[in-house]
Amino acid sequence: MAVDQWPPNNPSCLEDICVQFCVTHLETFTEVIDPDSKTFLYKLQAGLSLPKVICDKLLQGYIDSAENVDDSFLNIFSDTNVTQLTNLDLRCSDVTDAGLRLVQNQPILNLDLSHCDNITADCVESISAVGKTLGSLRMSTTPTDIPIFEYLHHCCHLRHLSLCNFPFEDRSLPSALSHLMHADFTGCSLSYDFLEGLGCLSGLVSLSLADVNLPDLDEILLNICKLKYLRHLDLSQSMDESVAYRYFVEHDDTEPLKVVMDCLPCLTSLDISGTNLAGFEVPEVTSHRLGPANQVIDSNKANSNCEEQIKCSIPGLEDRHLEFLGLFGCPYDACSREHIPASKVTGEHNEDQLILALQVYRDRTNFLIRVLNNLFECFQATSVVRWCDVLDGILIGMERHPKERDVQISGSASLFYIAKGEKKGNITQKQKRKIIRLLLTGMRNFNNEQTMMRNGCLTLCHFNIPFDVMFCYKMVVKVLLQMLEVDHRDNFIHRIGIFLLNSLACQVDGKEKELVGDMGAIETMLFIIQNKLRERECDEIMEVAWSTMWNVTDETPPNCERFLDHGGMELFLKCLKHFEEKPELLRNMMGLMGNIAEVKYLRPRLMVTKYVTVFSNLLNSTSDGIEVSYNAAGVLAHMASDGADAWTIDKPTREEMLATMVKAIRRWDIKSSRNINYRSFEPILRLLSAFDTPQVQHWAVWALCNLCGFNAERYCLLLEKEKGVVLLQNLLKDARPYTEIKHLARQLLLQVKGNTTTNIDVCMDVSFDDDVGTSVDLGVGAVCDNMDGEDGGGDTLRVVVSHEPESDRANQNHVVEQGLCDGRGDNLNNKVLLMEGTDDEDDPDLEDFL
Questions:
Q1: pTM of the model
Q2: In the chain, what is the straight-line distance between the N-terminal and C-terminal CA atoms, in Å?
Q3: What are phi and psi of 402, to 5 degrees?
């Protein structure tokens, strides 16, 4: 019975962690030669020497993590006195002939140049140079013809040769290869002289002639039958339809497999997938041969002299039992027959056959695609048992064929079911990272393919964003931005892409936010908004575009400046004009304005009559609760904090604006719940020192009271950590703030005292102004008696301190309402991402993607 076994979710060893850090931070051990050149190269820092095992790991680690591998990195290994490479796996890389020359003096044992499209015939000189140590060579056809055989006579230790899809019609097999043990000529065009040369490879134990055009088996089998030590033979054909070979005329009705088996006594592995060699019927053939040596026989039967009758469903194999038999794609359901004389079989009959096919045909794209599609159907039918084996096989296939469209699409479709399926909790950290990296590679290589982009985005949604992708943060941002810039004519792709990007922008530090800006996120969002304005459409995409900019500008001045430099304010006014009744849009736009207003050197660019007038008018807004009004007040408070001289416009006057702002503040409910996340109070705390403008202090203290009342456990600690207590105490000591501000400040200190271990002195005399009356109720955190101001000097404060668990709603871009995850990365929001089981016609089920 099939068992689903998962590896332990252990962390990487220290050596692997160090290697991963080094290859993603090349400055730790390399320096750049001529950094101003377009074709710069890395070199090892002076004084460093790397042992062989580390060199191989560094190269493989860089291949696994880099977007592409080219000559610049290979130059690190050009000096054999300080580096030593033995394994050079450059499959699907951008390495050129010049890059190979950089490492041709290394003692290379294994060289893989498959699908290296930038190498030419000149590469053979480098191959010849490493011939004295080379034991394994893998190559596939390139845009130019490579006379590889002319240089292999130098490779005296070559034991494994794989040359795929090469044209050898007019060439013969050189005698210098007589020492070969493993030969793979998959997809090659072979001449009869070449086939005759196969018979001279007397030491050959493995031979693949897969996808070689052999309409007549007579000639080839005559030579194959000379290879008496052959243990593995591959005659499979991966065409869409099975290939029918002509049977032997000279042997009358003798089955071709019978001839092969009789001539090759050591053969234990045979692949005839995609051919008619398994026969067209299921004959009732009985052999009187005793069972295979490794067959477990009942002890009672072992004592009997009776011969066991063995039935065989594959004509020609009646007297043999193979370790492996490839029957994938054979006609007449060969893989479904009852008596197949092999321990392991590839085919379409069951999951075990498909998983073995996934492993065996990882380099055969035609077969691989068909296997992936079969497995996808198994996922749809919820019949998969060996989830881990399927996952590993899919990842290997996608990794080895990054530029094969159908492999990437088919593989990503199944990854979706794995990432969201019942076994997702078993996925290890290493597997998770590999899934994400390969999805991004496929999305990058096929960003014009709607199906690939859908599959990739939908699968990424089932991870914890942004935390699960921090190891490749730059790559995922780049892929999503490129996707948003392409006109897919599919609103769903833009929806899910922008939500993912927004989730990436929240809950990260300023360095990542600035990186997102450097990569063009602001410009892309403004472009999207401009298109939406042209269509007069305010949908979730537009709202989240503003939300994304709100996130990436948070405490990130360069991104705020980018917004202003690229006409963001004009788009702000247009959106306000056309969609003033959209509360979500207004909140997001004003949140962004608040981030810009926090940057002192940018505030003069906001000091424009039409901008300030809009901000002042929005003070009276009741859209989205207090959010729009609150953010408008925050913008104006920061602008007013620069002093009267900085207020350079005539209308509205500074005094008018401040009076309107105070009225708005008094109208707000101090117990209002907030859908916002402050990582730092520093911008607000700066306003507590604006003693020349108490109205500014009023907004700042009110904001702190509201936040600490809403989430005391979190924000009281943050306030204490950022020295806010000292600023509040100074405010209480100063005579300039009016009474209402001091009431709020004192209540805030009591709130902090009740939720921290710090001994805070709040027993200070507070003088009350008669012209200020308010009701201060901190709700969850503290409750104050009403103070009507009429006999304020005699009022006392009653405080009840309590604790509240940290809210799950906690980010500036309201991930729970509009994003892709709920902060834990497990659940999608059905409001905007209706993936399955919905009636949303814009979101078709994934199974339709193929």
A1: 0.82
A2: 31
A3: -65, -20
